[in-house]
Amino acid sequence: MDEGTSTLDNITTNYIEKSILSLKNVTVISIAHKLKEDIAKMYDEILVIENGQLVEHGKFDGLMDRKNAFYALFMGMGDAYEESQ
User: Fold this and answer.
1) Could you tell me if 45 and 59 are in contact, meaning their C-beta atoms sit under 8 angstroms apart?
2) What does the angle CA 44 – CA 61 – CA 1 come to, to the nearest 5 degrees?
3) Which of 5, 33, 36, 76 is 20 to 30 A from 14, comparing alpha carbons?
4) pLDDT for the residue numbered 40
5) What is the pLDDT of residues 5-28, one digit of tens each?
6) What is the DSSP string of 22-75?
7) 85 residues of the chain, pLDDT tens digit each
8) What are phi and psi of 13, to 5 degrees?
9) CA atoms 47, 67, 79, 32: torsion sign
10) Residue 73 class from Cβ within 10 Å (0-12 exposed, 13-18 middle, 19+ buried)?
């Protein structure tokens, strides 16, 4: 949602996010550089792809508990994580 909403005001962005999350029985693929915790916790599955490879997947809390790729990206430490690999 980040790229698609980057030029919108916060009210409109929130409206779009809530509208998408209210959809039932559909698959939504969201590619984001910024991710809000409350929105991320609503996702059924989060996939982390690096260099074309799936490196991690799961629900928000599980990914944060593992403190791997998703944690580093979410906490803004993506560059430090990649250097340690």
Assistant:
1) yes
2) 50
3) 76
4) 86
5) 778 888 988 888 888 888 888 888
6) T--S-------SS--HHHHTT-S-EEEEETTEEEEEE-HHHHHHHTSHHHHHHT
7) 546 677 888 898 888 888 888 888 888 887 776 777 888 888 889 999 989 999 999 999 999 999 999 999 898 864 444 445 5
8) -60, -45
9) positive
10) buried
Instruction: Look up residue 27 and give its two tokens.
Output: 């698959």
Number of domains the chain contains: 1
Structural domain boundaries enclosing 10 = 2-84
Cα 11 from Cα 18, distance rounded (Å): 11
| Contact assessment for residue 82 and residue 51, using Cβ atoms and an 8 Å cutoff | no
Q: What is the DSSP letter of 8?
A: S
- Among 33, 34, 38, 31, which Cα is nearest to 61's? 38
